[in-house]
């Protein structure tokens, strides 16, 4: 039934993508501030919690019942694929070369770990689980995990994008990277889910309720709830403050690494593999880590939209910006000259005609133009009210214009 576990893992990755994008969409609607947008934001946030707390974990739990953790957990990398394909359409986000290459590395590494990971699904009873979980290797792993989470929560997550001494401001890239890695590190530890599902299967297989008289199943169930829900605080903060493409890649990449390491340490799932398979498996995990680094550094080196707005046009579009004028006269000097008046045109026309040897060649044309102007002005003066003593604004008689031509 390995194929059924893989199919359920693919469905779980789709629900995870939809849930994270609901968180991001909720924040985008909240920023609009209108009443319909705020209502949509609340509905989207509720859908995100529903998909990430109930639907996703239940489907994920079903997948762990049919396949080993080292095979199922890396399939969460498909979340990166769904997110990369859909976020530009659903959220209007922009793909960058570093983001694309990072997603390719993460998806390729996740696929490699699924192909070369252990295909053997061991059967556990409560005694075997107790012997498996209570080992020094597991204790050391948990201490390292706690130290890693404490470092992120104390050092990186409190970072502010504002200068020192100013009020806290979101947007720091290290803070975003830390939020995604913290959420992924918590969500990737699925060994409690795997162990709890093994107890359920053993109880059904042996048709006995003796397993539920022990405290271990309940402790594992609480641990599964803790790992499945506690990451949502960091994930929600991350998806509200940063783009889904960047955060989805960081979160899923860290989740895959944590799931692979926890499966190997807790359940010793690589013991049945040959040496070359183990090497390829860890190379695939390294590919996932390189994908996270590529996405992170690509995002950190990318300019913010606010910085682009502050840049000069030649910095953004590659064209030279117009330089400011020192005075109004300099700015007016660059404007095109107004259309010349009749008085200024007539001497030039007369001069041009004289230079050709025919001083009266253009006289009929000029007289016709002057006649049209006189008629239009007479019509306007007839429509406007006149008063005694008003100044006569009509044109001089036609003979005056003819004298000017001479």
TrEMBL record:
It is a multi-pass membrane protein. The chain crosses the membrane at residues 136-157, 177-196, 216-235, 244-267, 279-299. GO terms for molecular function: magnesium ion transmembrane transporter activity. Residues 1-19 form the signal peptide. GO terms for cellular component: membrane. Keywords: Membrane, Signal, Transmembrane, Transmembrane helix. It is found in: Membrane. SUPFAM superfamilies: Multidrug resistance efflux transporter EmrE. Pfam families: Mg_trans_NIPA (PF05653). Residues 329-358, 378-406 are annotated as: Disordered. Residues 383-396 have a biased composition (Polar residues). This is Magnesium transporter. It comes from Alexandrium catenella.
């Amino acid at each position: 039934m390995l194929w059924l576990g893989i199919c359920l893992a693919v469905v779980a990755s789709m629900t995870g993508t939809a849930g994270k994008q609901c968180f991001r969409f909720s924040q985008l609607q909240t920023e609009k501030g209108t009443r319909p947008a705020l209502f949509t934001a609340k509905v989207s946030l509720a859908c995100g919690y529903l998909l990430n707390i109930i639907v996703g974990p239940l489907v994920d739990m079903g997948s762990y019942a049919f396949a080993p953790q080292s095979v199922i957990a890396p399939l969460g990398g498909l979340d990166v694929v769904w997110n990369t394909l859909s976020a530009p359409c659903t959220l209007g986000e922009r793909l960058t070369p570093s983001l694309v290459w990072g997603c390719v590395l993460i998806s390729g590494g996740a696929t490699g770990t699924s192909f070369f990971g252990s295909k053997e699904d061991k059967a556990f009873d409560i005694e075997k689980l107790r012997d498996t979980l209570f080992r020094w290797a597991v204790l050391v792993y948990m201490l390292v995990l706690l130290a890693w989470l404490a470092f992120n929560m104390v050092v990186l997550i409190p970072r502010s994008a504002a200068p020192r001494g100013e009020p806290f401001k979101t947007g720091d890239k290290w803070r975003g990277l830390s939020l995604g890695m913290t959420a992924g590190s918590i969500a990737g530890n699925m060994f409690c889910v795997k162990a709890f599902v093994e107890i359920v299967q053993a109880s059904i297989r042996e048709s006995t309720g003796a397993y539920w008289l022990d405290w271990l199943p309940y402790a594992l169930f609480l641990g599964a709830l803790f790992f499945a829900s506690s990451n949502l605080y960091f994930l929600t903060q991350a998806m509200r403050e940063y783009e889904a493409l960047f955060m989805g890649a960081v979160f899923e990449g860290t989740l895959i690494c944590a799931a692979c390491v926890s499966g190997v340490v807790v359940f010793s799932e690589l013991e049945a593999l040959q040496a070359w398979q183990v090497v390829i498996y860890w190379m695939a995990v390294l590919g996932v880590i390189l994908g996270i680094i590529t996405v992170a550094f690509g995002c950190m080196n990318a300019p913010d939209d606010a910085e682009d707005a502050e840049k000069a046009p030649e910095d953004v579009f590659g064209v030279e910006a117009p330089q400011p004028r020192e005075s109004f006269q300099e700015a007016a000097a660059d404007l095109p000259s107004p259309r010349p008046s009749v008085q200024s045109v007539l001497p030039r026309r007369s001069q041009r005609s004289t230079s050709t040897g025919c001083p009266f060649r253009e006289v009929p044309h000029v007289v016709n133009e002057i006649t049209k102007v006189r008629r239009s002005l007479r019509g306007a003066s007839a429509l406007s009210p006149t008063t005694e003593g008003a100044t006569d604004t009509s044109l001089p008689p036609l003979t005056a214009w003819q004298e000017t031509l001479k």
